[in-house]
Amino acid sequence: MHMADALISPAVGGTMWAASAGLLAWCARKIRQTLDDRLVPLMGVLGAFIFAAQMINFTIPATGSSGHLGGGLILAVLLGPYASFVVIASVLTVQALFFADGGLLALGCNIFNLGFFPAFVALPLIYRPIVRDARGGVRLWLGSMLAAIVGLQLGAFGVVIETTLSGISELPFDKFVMLMQPIHLAIGIVEGLATAAVVAFVARTRPEALVMPSAPVDFSVNLRPVQTGLLIAAVIVGGALSWFASSHPDGLEWSMGKVSGREELESREAGIHEDMARVQEKTAFLPDYGFKTGEPEETQAWPAVNAGTTISGLVGGAMVVALAGLAGYLLRLRRKTA
Amino acid sequence: MSHHIVEARDLAHVYPDGHEAIRGITFRIAHGESVGVIGPNGAGKSTLLLHLNGCLLPSRGEVRVGEFPVTRETSPQVRRAVGMVFQDPDDQLFMPTVLDDVAFGPLNYGLAPGEARQRAVAALERVGMANLQEQTPYRLSAGEKRAVAIATILAMTPDIVVMDEPSSNLDPRGRRRLIELLKSFEHTRIIATHDLELVLEVCSRVILLDAGSVVTEGPAADVMNDESLMLKHGLERPHSLRHKHPH
Amino acid sequence: MDEFGAMDSPAHRLDARAKAVATIAFIVAVMSFPPYELSGLAPFVIYPVVLLALSGIPPAFILRKVLIAAPFAICIGLFNPLFDRHPVVLPGGLVVAGGWISFASILFRFALTVSAALVWVASSGMHRLCAGLERIGAPRAFVVQLLFLHRYLFVVADEGLRMRRAMDLRSAGARGPSLRVYGSITGHLLLRALDRAHRVYAAMRARGFDGRVRALRETESRIGDAAFVVCWIAFFAIARKWNLAEALGAWITGGAR
Predict the structure, then answer these.
(1) CB contact under 8 A, B103 and C150
(2) Is A38–C210 a contact, with Cβ atoms under 8 angstroms apart?
(3) What percent of chain A has pLDDT over 90?
(4) By CA distance, what is B93's nearest residue in A?
(5) Are C46 and A325 in contact (CB under 8 A)?
(6) Which of A72, A126, A79 is nearest to A95 (CA)?
(7) Residue C103 pLDDT
(8) Which of B16, B17, B94 sits opposite A41 (nearest CB)?
(9) What residue of A is the nearest CA neighbor of C143?
(10) DSSP structure string for C125-194
(11) Do residue B138 and residue C155 have CB atoms under 8 angstroms apart?
(12) Which of A169, B23, C33, C194 is disulfide-compatible with B212, CB 3.0–4.6 A?
């Protein structure tokens, strides 16, 4: 769920950059205050571990498909909120810079969506109260699952809000929510399972490894307002979701179909008849939906099309691109001969 | 020159999980000496080495470097005198470029950037790796990594060089270079390794460890020529000794 | 990517900060266009192209990276033609849904922003980039974290790869291990990572580490860097304000509107 630059407006991107940079500075200060310099290599290597762990897949029970660790929650569990936020931010930065996975302008959004929620919501408000110091069993599995699901639901909701506010994608808010939240429910369950499996293993084989040099948790003071706020947010979001679900029942059906449709395409076992049925479903869906969404208002908003402008725009655009390419080629040539 | 002496007195270490890795080791290594520490896996070689620069502190007994006991308080000075080359160079080379890495130690000990750079370049020249300054450590070959790791230590101008398995993962040429380099050092050298031929070439004396205790110590060729002793402790008599002393 | 960072070229010699500022200005300018813009974006192609040409990095490398990253933008962008179906007349009388125009615009922006960012990173190299970040005021802990992450990324990923290979060889073609086996494999990987962190820390302490990571810095601001930033920002501002491509096109087609 890394967002790309192409879907973010500078205003949204800038705001989220500021939010994430502020959080990062705050976490960096908290880490410095712990004066534990063991954290320096530990955080670096654990960030690298997240990359490595993402290469190892496992079979999701009772489905036959496979998933892997995302990493936000396990970092939070291992390092505590402050250090884990910095690590997640660094992982996302390297992904953005070196693998073009998520854009630069969108980096603030991605750090916030994938870093803030696991570290500062899922860990202190869900994982720790439920799991406490359990090293396995129901508490660990339940806490991991719930924490991962909530963290990813909030993150996915963040993606939806940021994309909608940017106004570049035409995907309506309600449809986008219906697309993102169920998918991330599935991803959250996978994340919870993977996290619990790894924590349980480490707890069994080397329990002392779970006691990390992490920052002292001073949440106790301001926990209540956060909890209240979250509760209110949950009620609102839940209400809104159920309203959308009831007023657009086909929307939910559709986004579910979309999810399962993707899986079908990936699995080789799916018969060709099923595939055909999917294709039919999809083609049947298009006229139903696409034509009806708020057409009248938007027609007015759409600027009058002037063929002349477009012609000169197209010609000029093509020319400029060609010129740029030529300039680049000449520059290279000069460098090579020089 | 007494300050280059390394001494262990009844040194013992118990890990937090209760495992007693070394139990009552005593030895004395004089200035400029080159000593091999040999023994089977799990004999306590690495644990012993980690005590020599205060990475681990003794559970019992003490280590003295140049008449100072190694404690939490003295470890910064001790680490200046005792340079440690770790087994995996990837653990030792953590900075973004080779030059940054070699300059890391000198900078930490308060040298100005210009001076630190000179030292780093000189150390890289000493190990024949001056052309790699701007490289990323990850991209180097095993032999180059090892040489750079040694340079990181030389840049701190230690009196004593401690090495854990310096020839592991090296190809024959890299190993040969390493041996020639080690022979050329005037530092006190303490080398833990399974590479007995290397010990034979570089070290004048060996300490044989097993199960956390010193089994014997003495001139390298004498100790390692005792076939039954070597076999008893999971080692073997080096081939070159067999050829020199046929039955 | 690291190989390119170690190269030497006019683009590499620029201060990483100058490239950072220019690239961010570039992305902001590109993303501030309204959703249906296409021709106005065209002049912006010049920035990544020139930087790429100056750096001597093979264009195919950047192109491949852009393509690898494309699916997400395509996925979300594809909804535009679905939801925005107002007819738009193209030159030649062809009628398409307005969503296709904004879709094309999304893809164009995507290619521009991603390629600019990639060229910036590839022509800087991680350590210069981090030095630059620190000097524009990024938190130290974060910069050091980036350096260490980057340093151990491949080391730990290699370990992960080896473990996966060993697992695949014994898993008889199954898609993945069960959750229990997964926990053990990934858990082992984690324990190894923790051990490594421990050893790295010991190695750092052995060389006098006291909580501060010091590095030799040699970046100094030069007039060339400042000129680079100023010129590009001026160009972005002009290209953002006036549609240069359209002006050129109008001039060529004889001013026909």
Answers:
(1) no
(2) no
(3) 16
(4) A41
(5) no
(6) A72
(7) 83
(8) B94
(9) A90
(10) -HHHHHHHHHHTT--HHHHHHHHHHHHHHHHHHHHHHHHHHHHHHTTTT-SS--HHHHHHHHHHHHHHHH
(11) yes
(12) B23
Helix, strand or coil, per DSSP, at residue A271: coil
- A300/A131: higher pLDDT: A131
Task: Note the maximum CA span of chain A.
Answer: 72
Chains that touch C (3 or more CB pairs under 8 A): A, B
pLDDT, tens digit, for every residue of A203-244?
Answer: 888 877 776 544 444 333 344 454 555 555 555 554 444 444
Inspect the interface and report whether the beta carbons of B55 and C202 lie closer than 8 Å: yes
Residue B153's domain is classified under what CATH number? 3.40.50.300
Q: Which two tokens stand for residue C245?
A: 């491509």
Q: Find, among B187, B224, B89, the residue nearest to B145 by Cα.
A: B89
| pLDDT band at residue A338 using 50, 70 and 90 as cut-offs | low
Taking the C-alpha atoms of residue C61 and residue A104, their distance in angstroms, rounded to an integer, is 19
Q: Nearest CA to B200 among B177, B181, B183?
A: B183
Distance from CA of A296 to the nearest CA of B (A): 58
With tokens 């657009």, the residue in question is A248
Higher pLDDT, A292 or C156: C156
Residues of C in contact with A335 (CB under 8 A): 9-10, 53-54, 56
> How many angstroms separate the CA of residue B16 from the nearest CA in chain A?
10
Q: How many CA atoms lie within 13 A of B243 on its CB side?
A: 4
- pLDDT greater than 70 at residue A201: yes
Nearest to A53 among C65, C99, C186 (CB): C186
**pLDDT surpasses 80 at C255:** no
Predicted pLDDT of residue C174: 65
Residue C200 has its nearest CB partner, among B50, B84, B91, at B91
- How many separate domains does chain B show? 1
Which residue range forms the structural domain that includes residue B38? Answer: 2-244
Q: Which of A273-282, A290-299, C1-10 shows the lowest mean pLDDT across its residues?
A: A290-299
Other C-beta atoms lying within 10 Å of the C-beta of residue C65: 21
Residue pair A96/A102 in contact (Cβ under 8 Å)? The answer is yes
> Under a CB-based contact definition with an 8 Å cutoff, are residues A123 and A147 in contact?
yes
C91 touches chain A (CB under 8 A): yes
Residues of C in contact with A163 (CB under 8 A): 76
Read off the amino acid at residue B40: P
Segment C48-56 mean pLDDT? 84
Contact (CB<8Å) B53/C206: yes
Segment A34-38 mean pLDDT: 78
Question: What pLDDT shows up at residue C219?
Answer: 55
Q: How many CB pairs under 8 A join A and B?
A: 4
Q: What's the pLDDT score for residue A285? A: 33
How confident is the model over A156-196, as pLDDT tens digits?
899 888 888 888 777 788 888 888 888 888 888 888 988 99
Task: Looking at mean pLDDT, say which of A129-138, B185-194, C39-48 comes out highest.
Answer: B185-194
| Residue-level pLDDT at A64 | 62
Give the residues of chain B that fall short of pLDDT 70: 1-3, 244-247
What integer pLDDT is reported at residue C218 of this predicted model? 60
Residue linked to tokens 């170690």: C6
Which residue type does B107 have? L
**Among candidates A56, A101, A201 on the partner chain, residue whose Cβ is nearest the Cβ of C164:** A56
Count of C-beta atoms within a 10 Å radius of residue B17: 7
With an 8 Å Cβ cutoff, are A44 and C187 in contact?
A: no
Task: Please tell me the CATH code under which domain A5-221 is placed.
Answer: 1.10.1760.20
For testing the chain A interface, which of C80, C190, C205 should be mutated: the one with the most A CBs within 10 Å? Answer: C190
Q: Give the contacts of A329 (CB within 8 A, at least 6 positions apart).
A: C53
CB contact (8 A) between residue A56 and residue C163? yes
Among B19, B93, B94, pick the best mutation site for testing chain A contact (most A Cβ within 10 A).
B94
